[in-house]
């Protein structure tokens, strides 16, 4: 199974950069199921894809020409406009820096209301432990959703193998390795993590990130 690329939520206060996005996924094959949004440029409204979003900005895929420095309004959903300015453009991707930081946890919670094709992924960067049979590995958790986790690891996890993921501050999560490629692996949890439990953990991670500067 190939990894599926969806909109990535980050707890960072910094807006996304073009190099970070490209370097992280270079050489990997992904399906794409990004969140659809709209962008208001001057007097016209265009569709866009939200590739990732942090408290300070977002990376979007454009289907129109927008110059660096242009003031824009991005809507993630009806009635949820965010004002910002285009900071960079590369190919079809653009970075938007928000005029005011947003609450990513609030945006995440709103995005999970009503029908949705996939659960949002939230970027994280913390140590974790996984157990596969008798083998125990220390790994880095890259992003997490209610349904699974992406990790960075040198371990070659057999597809379909039973995995137990331990994250600080959360109960151990049993799951199955569903893909492994280029030093990363995806693990699908056997049971959905309760939303309240995940949001509380994310709030703690956000506070720790800010305290660390």
Describe this structure as you would to a colleague.
The termini are far apart. A hairpin with a 2-residue loop joins β14 and β15 (184-189). By secondary structure, the protein is of the alpha+beta class. The chain is 15% helix and 47% strand. It is built from 3 helices and 15 strands. It folds into 2 domains: 4-111, Thrombin, subunit H; 121-211, Thrombin, subunit H. The longest helix is centred in the C-terminal third of the chain and has 17 residues, at 195-211. The protein has helices spanning 18-25, 104-111, 195-211; strands at 4-6, 8-10, 31-33, 35-41, 44-53, 57-62, 71-75, 81-90, 93-98, 121-132, 135-144, 148-152, 162-166, 173-181, 184-189. Strands 2, 4, 5, 6, 7, 8, 9, 10, 11, 12, 13, 14 and 15 form a 13-stranded mixed beta sheet that branches. The chain has a two-stranded parallel sheet with strand order 1-3. Residues 23-105, 118-190 form the PilZ domain. Pfam families: PilZ (PF07238). It comes from Sphingomonas caseinilyticus.
